[in-house]
Each structure stands twice: as C-alpha cells, then as structure tokens.
Amino acid sequence: MYLLFEEFIGDIVVSKKDRAVDGRRESFWTLVNSLLAVFDSSNPTNLSLFQNCKELTESGYDKFFLCYNKRKERLMQIYRQEVLKIDSINTKGRRTKEVIITKIKDLKNAEHISKKCPPQSEVKLFTITTTKSKKSWHVTTDEEKSILIPYLTNPNPSNEETEAVLESLLKLSSNY
Asked: Is 4 or 88 the better-scoring residue by pLDDT?
C-alpha cells in the first residue's frame, strides 16, 4: 500500500503509525468508491466528484483526447529514441501539458474566496457614488517664508525658537 501512495499519488509516507495508515486507507477507499460510482453512473458530470471541474465542456473533452493522442505519439518517440536508439534523443517538450491541472490547493482557495464573497445573484445592485476630494497642498507664502528663513538657517534651533516660529505660523494660518 505504501508503494501505491508513493508511486501513484505522490504522497511519500512519512508516518507509518497505525492511526496515520488507517487515515490514509480510509481516504483511499473513499476515493475508490467515488470513482466506482462515477463509472457506474449514466451522467458522471453531475456527481460531486466533478462539481468544481471547469474543464468538463466540449472543448475540454476535445483537449483531453487530443492530449492523449499527443502523449501517445510522444511515448512512441521516446521509445524509438531511448530504447531502440533509432533516432537521436530529443528532450524538448517532455513536461508540457495540454490540459489544465487542477490542484487541491486551488480548489480550497476558490472555496475560501466563495465563502468570503456572496455569489453574484445574491449581491444587491446599488450604486454608490463617491467624490474623492483632492488633497490640497499648502503653498508656502512669502510671509511664511520670511518667518521660516531665520529658523532654517540656524543649525541647532532651541525648543523656544521652534515654539516661537510655530506660534507665528499659527497666527497666520490654522493649518499648522
């Protein structure tokens, strides 16, 4: 059973304790039973196993069967190149996929997003118009510059000088 998980599912079994093995065995048999139900069903696309498959369309089936034929041809090329050594070895394109691979992580992310956002049919249609006011920048006037020049020329102004300049600026405008 370990070989089956490692070889075909890609799950390298780290924990070989009874509880972990039982959990994997239950998951595996659940998958087997659902696949048997799919093969026995007259319309397997309506079953829950294929509920999130976006590729179960006419074009998706065409791509799948075309992919099968292309991979079959590619296997024959590899057989001729590496086993029979008739042709020179060409490794380009060995990992290309013509079909979309659905990962469990993607399904969980899509489910998580759908829980956050209600479906479009449930969203109430209303329009909110907001006017974004532009942030106005304060343009320094000549009078303010004349107050700031002595302060900026002093390399180490004291706290009293700073407060005096601030009070002078506040008298001119309350924006400070």
From this structure: 88
